[in-house]
Amino acid sequence: MQTGVTVLPEHFQNEGVENVVARLAAAKVGMIATSPYVMEVSDEKNGSREPPVDAGAGSVRLLDRPLWGRRELFVKTAPSFVPEKKLYDGLRYQPSGATALTMREGGVIKAFLRAAQGRHIQTYLQVQAAIPPGYRVQFGGPVEDDKPRLPDGRVPPRRLANNGSLASPHILDYTVALTRDMVKAYPEIDGIRFDWPEYPPYFLDDVFLDFGPHCAQAAARMGFDFSRMQRDVLALYQLVHGGLTNAHLERMLQLDGGRNALLMGLMDSPGVLDWLRFKGMLVSELAMRLRDALPGRIALTFGVFPPPFATVSGMQYSTLAKYATALHCKLYTMHWPVMFRFYGDAILKANPGLNEELVVRALSQWLEIQDPPYSTRLADFRYPEPDEAHPVGVEAQIRKVREAQRAAGTTPVYAFIHGYGPVSDFAKRLEAGRAASPHGVWVNRFGYLRNEKITLLGSPANPSALKP
Model confidence over 157-195: pLDDT tens digits? Predict the structure, then answer.
């Protein structure tokens, strides 16, 4: 069983490459991922908050390992290497240009690669799959033409993940060019992890993507009836946004878990099932192109949503596994309760006659983020404070990874946990990840790993930590 940690470049800049790598090596970490950028302090007008605010809900987050002496600050970035412009000739999206920050600090990535590989630690680069220029999630996004759209043609008014449409040839062409550029700049890497190669379903509207003009063309090429998909998904969207009754929710709470109601609904709306398959094929086409762009010796991995979020994000483990060296199933458990809350608030606002307890019970059954007994109040679901345990279930976490592994077949699925949260809760989530995956655990991010958590990474498995 292996352990990996994502260390973003700013921590190498702050604590020193040798110090960070040696500390993780002592904790038996055998894989480290970073990103091809460097960072400097900025201000609120010109920079982005670190740590990210996650659409406002994550503004409670503070770093465990300060940057430039602060646990929260505003920053800006530049690529850590000089992009090879000819790789992007004729493309809609172009890489960020190298700056004085690149020249001053960019060597930190090469220094990391030397230090890690000198200790026989596998090295990975992480980039965004559909957010040009792709170096870091907070800095980039698609132009209007490439934004994913709802079945009524609108762009969702509020999004957390600023992903472009996976059907856009411009998004795909840029991501392939970036991949080739990184391999030329850093040929010694062991692998690349692409983050969010899907439609991240943080908000309820995100669930109903994508029906932009690029999707209409892709659907025709793939043999899907785009008009039927659009019609049936729009009807489902309208049902959820104004047509739900308590009787609908009660059907979901039958002893069969609502499976018969779901099956009947799909039979009555075949365009919905086609749409789910279509999104999965868009993700698979992206993966196929990335695999073709990489030398065979470089591992291709993806950081992806767990079931059942994966069903609507387009992340079909069984198909993506054909192209991936490994899949990293995200157990970002501070996000789950706030996603639950986003969904619940949107449903209640759109359907004012609904019983809140029925909404909460139905969402609990469908999203499976807690172990019984389930909460019954929407107020119980929010972004946890830095020293507050994440309100999720141990068995729910384990079940999601194991379900993903069953779908992926022989392609390894790693539990991908988050470092955010108090030490005791991190210990429990670490053990849940170890119990869920025989292959190992990745941890995101080093900035939340105070020294006690790093020590836990090197400790033997402790199943007793999973007990209530």
Answer: 998 889 999 999 999 999 999 999 999 999 999 999 999
User: How far is the CA of 467 from the CAs of 192, 368, 425, in angstroms?
Assistant: 36, 19, 12
Q: Is the sign of the CA dihedral 34, 283, 334, 75 positive or negative?
A: positive
Query: What is the pLDDT confidence band of residue 401, given thresholds at 50, 70 and 90?
Result: very high
Helix H or strand E segment including 191: strand 191-195
Is the Cα dihedral 446, 452, 457, 462 positive or negative? negative
Compute the distance between CA of residue 262 and CA of residue 415 in angstroms, rounded to an integer.
29
Report the distance separating Cα 390 and Cα 430, nearest Å.
13
Triad 52, 382, 355: Cα angle to 5°: 140
Residue linked to tokens 């309760």? 337
Cβ pair 148, 209 in contact under 8 A? yes
Q: pLDDT value at position 213?
A: 96
**Angstrom distances, CA of residue 76 to CA of 178, 309, 443, 450:** 20, 31, 24, 24
Domain count, the chain: 1
* Whether the Cβ atoms of residue 130 and residue 179 lie closer than 8 Å to each other: no
Structural domain boundaries enclosing 326: 2-466
Integer Cα distance of 284 and 295 in angstroms? 18
447 Cα distance to chain centroid: 17
**What is the arithmetic mean of pLDDT over 437-465?**
92
Q: What is the pLDDT of residue 395?
A: 96
Strand order in the sheet with 48-50: 37-41, 73-79, 48-50
User: Distance between CA 394 and CA 372 in Å, rounded?
Assistant: 11
Query: Is residue 331 within 8 Å of 433, Cβ to Cβ?
Result: yes
Beta carbons of 401 and 413 less than 8 angstroms apart: yes
CATH number at residue 143: 3.20.20.80
Q: What is the DSSP string of 289-309?
A: HHHHHS-TTSEEEEEEPPTTH
